[in-house]
Amino acid sequence: MGEIVVQISNLKKEFDGTVAVAGISFAVERGETVGILGPNGAGKTSTIQMLLGLLSPTSGTVSIFGQDLDSKRVQILKRCNFSSAYINLPYNLKVWENLLIFAELYQVKEPRKKAAELLEMFEIAHLKDKITGQLSSGEATRVNLCKALLNDPELLLLDEPTASLDPDIADKVRKLLRQIQREKRITLINTSHNMKDVQEVCDRILFLYKGKILAEGTPDEILHRFEETSLEEVFIRIARSGDLLSQEAK
Amino acid sequence: MNARIIAALVRRHTILYSRNAPRVVELFFWPTMDLLVWGFVTTYLLKVRTGAPPAITFLLGAMIFWDILYRAQQGVTISYLEEVWSRNLLNIFVAPVKLSEFIAATYVVGMIKVLVIVSVLTGMAFCFYSFNLLSLGLALIPLFANLLLLGWSMGLMTTALLLRWGQAAEALAWAIPFAIQPISAVFYPVSILPPWIQPLALLLPSTHVFEGMRQVLKGEGLSTEHLCWAFGLNIFYALLAAWLFQTMFQEARKKGRLTRMLS
Ligand SMILES: Nc1ncnc2c1ncn2[C@@H]1O[C@H](COP(=O)(O)OP(=O)(O)O)[C@@H](O)[C@H]1O
Ligand SMILES: [Mg+2]
Q: Which of A101, A105, A216, B13 has the fewest C-beta atoms under 10 angstroms from its C-beta?
């Protein structure tokens, strides 16, 4: 067994009566790519946000790099990064300025070199002097990913990274992410309700439904277990009859 | 606290202002209008009432001093709102930035705004109305410092309220300083206030600053009593603001407000 990077135990989140995450436990090893899949409202975002300390759990614990997130948050965050389709970099600043500012926040050794390298890697070096707010959503997503890789994170958390992209760009971004993840052996946790994201990028899938893990395994294991030929069909089945399935699981 | 991180957080705002003409105009527009109005009121009062005490020039000093407080509060609150408006707040809070560093940066932005505006206002008051703020001499330093401190604390408290009530409460950002203006004895001495309000007024550091300013302009010199009260109360309000912000931040993490604010 490899080194455990993320360890979640009995993690639970309730919002005034709504159970967003219903006491889940899982561990992620170094270099692994885990996809959290599930319909809207399944608790994917809540889970990711608890991993970042943006949301405090109702109960349960999160440990990252063997340290307790609650007490060592800043030290842990130095070695992590995050991106989501739903947050932006300051829109009135140039791409280059934004990347340099975040490089400082992460105390990157050679900010300029690193930022230039990442822009090159995502093939957006020509956007360097553009105002961030004027980028297309595909360009903005790639700039956000550059920000997310500035500090060479050991753990990268992505919340619906390709949600705002057209299929062509989404495909490119996925391939690139996969490649970078392999080269640098990044531990990646990525939420999505997009099957492609998960099938192409992830070694392992957690199927979340109403805050519970309904199924867990490699894409193939999951297909086998549900006797389906595509994850999309599994997804639809879970979304439509998840309650039944969770009964069976017990 | 890490100076490199604070500097980077500040630079984000200085770049923004260096490029955004409407923001800069907005920054100068109201203080300039205020100064013109109070300047002409002063000129008028001096003309119609030949017997009017030269103390009337207090009005201009008071106006400029008020702006130190107001702009410091605004600087802090708007720095926070700027991150909310641009949906960048989460990027910052998932970076290894301590809350104290985030706040320190908003304080620095507030201070820069205050220094720029007050310099411009002081220059205009001198050119147009021959009012010299620098005639306050060395007393200017502690008076300025106390107003800045209170402005910072009020900015942090406003930010805490914004964390609690979200964008619905944005109007508060502009209104809060005016809630203390009437009893801070900005444009008139405390003795004008109804007797039962006076003790309340004296619980605000700003009241002691404005009383102190009038003492100095009258040539009486700044009393240590006002100065000590102002500093002491400021320490109290700074701690209160820090506590309020910390509490609201923890609560926002519990209720998921940090992220909801964005959607
Ligand atoms: N800040 C919040 N306040 C109240 N309810 C919330 C909050 N955030 C999420 N929820 C609720 O928790 C559940 C899970 O939401 P979320 O984690 O965003 O799911 P997903 O990302 O899988 O779509 C949903 O029912 C949602 O309405
Ligand atoms: Mg979500």
A: A216
